[in-house]
Amino acid sequence: MPTVKPAVPNFSSGPCAKRPGYSLACLPTNLLGRSHRSAKGKARLQKSIDDTKRLLGLPADYRLGIVPASDTGAFEMAMWSLLGPRPVDVFFWESFGEGWMNDLQKQLKLPNVRSFSAPYGELPDLTQANPAHDVVFTWNGTTSGVKVPNGDWISDQREGLTLCDATSAVFAMEIPWPKIDVATFSWQKVLGGEAAHGVIVLSPRAVARLQTHKPAWPMPKIFRLTKGGE
Ligand SMILES: Cc1ncc(COP(=O)(O)O)c(C=O)c1O
Questions:
Q1: Pairing between strand 63-68 and 197-202?
Q2: Atom nearest to 168 CA in ligand 1
């Protein structure tokens, strides 16, 4: 048994801590029951998008979207939409990263996947990332408590895209945005907010890939990030 214990034991995979002062009474209910497609619903989504971009300090040319199915939905729509044109290097060291590796190999069945793993408590050799490949990784491996130290191992001259599951990192850890082409997270994690919503962040290079690459597999409507090629 550890002798030193955290003062606030809400960590790891959740349930996650609410912010100090959280109360249901603070939630405005004036849009309760309104469609997310109504003018007011859309305006609320836009405010949330704009505020999130500002609070995270995203570069002005990065995009941010709110999507269905939590972090899982956001990360899977990124993989399904973007991967295929280049070999993929996947780094994982706990259960969620392993899940993405399984998606790549067993669901998407990508032919050129190199996987780098480490047991619980350790990190794989991140320097193996090939800048010509797409890279899939988790910033903070929630279930092992091991995070990448920084983004220095990601090349500024990379040709591939970096896809980062950052769900328990965004808002808790500094993210070097120029190193990240796709980041995903859910409100339920670091913010202790509602489940079911995912957030996806896209760099200009990720948007360019979306506009030029057509996935070889069928895309369910909720995964489609482009309309008419835009
Ligand atoms: C690293 C990581 N990825 C993905 C998930 C899944 O997140 P969600 O339940 O928001 O889909 C979690 C949840 O704990 C996580 O910690």
A1: antiparallel
A2: 16
Rg (CA), the chain: 18
Range with the poorest average pLDDT among 18-22, 91-95, 145-149: 18-22
For residues 210 and 204, the answer to whether their CB atoms sit within 8 Å is no
What are the pocket residues of ligand 1 if the criterion is a CB atom closer than 6 Å to any ligand atom?
Answer: 13-14, 70-72, 96, 138, 142, 165, 167-168, 186, 188
pLDDT for res 171? 92
DSSP 3-state assignment of 42? helix
Contact present, 184 and 166 (Cβ < 8 Å): yes
Query: pLDDT band for position 12 (50/70/90)?
Result: low
Compute, in angstroms, the gap from residue 144 CA to the centroid of ligand 1.
Answer: 13
Structure tokens at 197: 């919503």
The minimum-distance atom of ligand 1 relative to the CA of 186 is 10
Sheet holding 197-202, edge to edge: 63-68, 197-202, 182-186, 162-165, 134-138, 88-92, 113-117
Tell me how far the alpha carbon of residue 72 lies from the centroid of ligand 1, in angstroms: 6
How far apart are alpha carbons 71 and 167 in whole angstroms? 7
* 186 Cα to the center of ligand 1, angstroms: 7
Q: Whose CA is nearest to atom 7 of ligand 1?
A: 71
- Give yes or no for residue 14 having a pLDDT over 70: no
d(CA 39, ligand 1 centre) in Å: 31
Averaged pLDDT, 104-119 = 98
